[in-house]
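Lab notebook, bench 4. The sequencing result for the construct came back, and we need a structural model before the next group meeting so we can plan mutations. Quick request posted to the team channel:

Model the 3D structure of this chain.
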Amino acid sequence: MIELLDPIIKSHNVEISNGLNVHYLEADSNKSQKPTALLLHGFPELSFSWRKIIPFLAAEGFRVIAPDMRGYGQTLGGGKEFHADISEYRLLNLSTDIISLMSSLNLDKIDLLVGHDAGSSVAAVSAIIRPDIFKSLVMMSAPYAGTPNINSSLTYEDPIHKELEKLDPPRKHYQWYYSTIEANKDMHLEKKELHKFLRAYYHMKSADWKKNVPYKLNSWNAENLAKMPEYYIMQLNEDMVQSVMPHYPQSNCYENWLNDQELEVYTNSFLKNSFQPALNWYRCMTSNNLNSDLRIFSGKKIEVPSCFIAGEKDWGIYQKPGALEIMENNLCLHYKGRHIIQNAGHWVQQENHVDVAKTLIDFFKNNNLF
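Done. Here's the predicted structure in token form:
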């Protein structure tokens, strides 16, 4: 992996008090008084996903840190079994991982906290509960609509799943599929087939897949959700491999943002770890109980300057109808805008790293955070 990185980027490991040996990538500027940026990846990604952003931020004067999150990559310590206590993957503990990492690196604050996809939720929760140490927040590709309401039911069963099953053809939601015992077995393939699956998966959620033309959905119901591609709302009788492999790219359109050498880093990582540790994140997300400890922060706002970044071809913006509007209008007290990046889909920091890096830097400068 290291040979594919800009020479300014170094690879390190550190023990943290929350029970992990964390692998992280780091680049340091030469400035004596430097702000620190912390970059959190999503699914199915790695710290490596920030490889094109890190040098830009370092050149601008940041110390940049991008960890492999719990259960991912070269970070050691996250449980890998389905039949185990997965509460370590709940959002409050993932935020504790970040604060524990900061302590091990002798950091008393993060000036720019950035989270992509599932990392967006971790970043948002971290900023909500510790605005004293996270000074600004950028959420990418996945809007966060706030902590659970103190009055929310812990036994509520969403009728959406039965509604989806009644469609013609019957459908299912990918997050609940990822929460099943079958999902890891379906995707944990031999190396050659795993490489092909990941290529198809990344392609289908990128701007290269021409059928990605996202738009706002009116409400959380089966008919609306079924308008999204099958990597989100799957055929009921298909697994994720079956959902994406028919759309395997017929050209090397991906070469400019994720070539085969770079994809091999992901292939080797998920071949070694399996997908189960990462899927345990989804199992916590789809459980009313496992993130219920966040109800203590019910109604608490994001107080620090914040913004949202996503690719123009990313359905992730709209996959939870109403979440973007709640985030922008109700949750963020010092919201600095929505930035839609052209020529990018879900993997926005890889597909168009130049515009993402510029947006991050402008957000930081324009809010006098330097």
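The chain has 14 helices and ten strands.
Will bring this to the meeting.
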